[in-house]
Amino acid sequence: MPSARSATALPRPARTEGRRRARSRPTSTRRQPLRIRWDRVGRIGLLVVLVVVAGLYVKQGLSYLAARTQADQQGAIVHRLTRENARLEAQRRALNDPATIERDARALGMVRPGERSYVITGLPNR
Question: Which DSSP category does 98 fall into?
Fold first, then answer.
């Protein structure tokens, strides 16, 4: 059975009795170069791409909602104008009716040629 220790590992130095030896750190004035954490860079890049794509979708979504609201308003105006047009068409047909023309003329006090007009006054108001 192989030993748990690697063959290339250095043996530990023997301890002196009673005192530990303080390890000295190397006092190098050179800083170690910064290591690039590619996993973080990748995550940040994906996050930036996600924000840009979401921003594009939000802009298009707001544009769609604005267009839909405007279309609904225009549809309501068309519906109102269609009803008004139908009402005016019915009024035009009624005004072209000879009976309506005669009734309106008599309400204005007009008479046909050859008829006599009588005005009765002193009646109570209705």
Answer: H
